[in-house]
Write a structure and sequence with these properties.
By secondary structure, the chain is of the alpha+beta class. Helices cover 17% and strands 38% of the residues. It contains 5 helices and 14 strands. The radius of gyration is 19 Å and the shape is globular.
Length: 291
């Protein structure tokens, strides 16, 4: 039986249909609609299949155009925008029923030496000193005398272990500071190749990035009549990464307004190296109660 991590990695196994055209016809992941992280990772994989030199992704920009339908296959078309000595550029569309559900522009670069600087990692407790998100949620249900069987999605196991620095009471939402720090590690062994590591980081970067924006206005995924959906997502890869060890996902939200929340994420290795950065804007709608 495949582990949750193995099932997630199998999402990256695309079939070639024709030159620069690939497809995914396996089981999609998500709830009601395809999880955005899945499609982001798959477009990166499709783009890499058209890169013939030692250029590696450094910049990923994308838009979520339509909800992905869980029960249908996805076709990925790659446009070879440019192949240069130092940089290569690709545009990828994800298509269902003849309509684009997602598109991305990805830039690849050869490895180069140059001037360096980076910000410091936040001073937060080590992962070994923190409880997992599942442990925190179980404790919350126990405190409220709630049966775990009544909330299977609340305790859903994932392909990663998350240890939050700031623990939330999801059943008693209130306005919180617009930031969130979480230690994350793969539940199992990830392949060491850079393509798999980058694709997996893209995949999980869509988990909770808008949470800091939600915190700022006192809502979360359990809030009644609340709508949250990703609109766009960008990521910059700064270094080679190894997600088999703990890394810190440090998120902040500068602004929430006009039914949109904006969040920024910095991803640090356990030793303090900034390995990637990301941003996301998403819908934050609180619909009025129906009379």
């Amino acid at each position: 039986m495949k582990s949750l991590l193995e099932k997630s990695l199998s999402l990256f196994d695309l079939d070639k249909v024709d030159k620069d055209i690939y497809s995914w016809s396996g089981k999609n992941v998500g709830f009601k609609r395809i999880f955005g992280g899945q499609v982001m990772a798959q477009t990166l994989i499709a783009a890499y299949k058209t890169i013939d030199v030692k250029h590696f992704a450094h910049s990923f920009h994308s838009y979520f155009l339509r909800p992905g339908q869980m029960e249908k296959p996805i076709t990925f078309t790659v446009d070879r925008i440019r192949d240069g000595k130092s940089f290569s550029t690709r545009t990828v569309k994800a298509i269902q029923d003849g309509e684009a559900i997602f598109n991305s522009s990805i830039s690849f670069q050869k490895e180069e030496k140059g001037l360096e600087h980076q910000i410091k990692m936040p001073d937060v407790p080590k992962p070994e000193d923190l409880k997992s998100e599942i442990e925190n949620r179980r404790a919350l249900l126990e405190k409220l005398n709630m049966d775990e069987g009544d909330m299977p999605m609340f305790l859903k196991q994932r392909e990663i272990e998350m240890r939050p620095v700031e623990v939330q009471d999801y059943f008693n939402p209130k306005k919180l500071p617009p930031y969130k720090n979480t230690w994350i590690k793969a539940e199992g062994k990830l392949p060491k190749d850079l393509i798999s590591q980058q694709a997996f980081l893209l995949y999980i970067s869509d988990m909770g990035l808008l949470a800091a924006a939600n915190n700022s206005v006192g809502v979360n995924f359990l809030t009644k009549n609340f709508q949250n959906a990703s609109l766009d997502h960008a990521m910059w890869f700064h270094r080679k990464i190894d997600l088999n060890d703990w890394f810190l996902y440090s998120i902040d939200s500068p602004i929430t307004r006009n039914a949109r929340g904006f969040s920024r994420g910095s991803i640090f290795s356990k030793t303090g190296d900034l390995v990637a950065s990301c941003t996301q804007e998403g819908l934050i709608r609180l619909w009025p109660e129906k009379k």
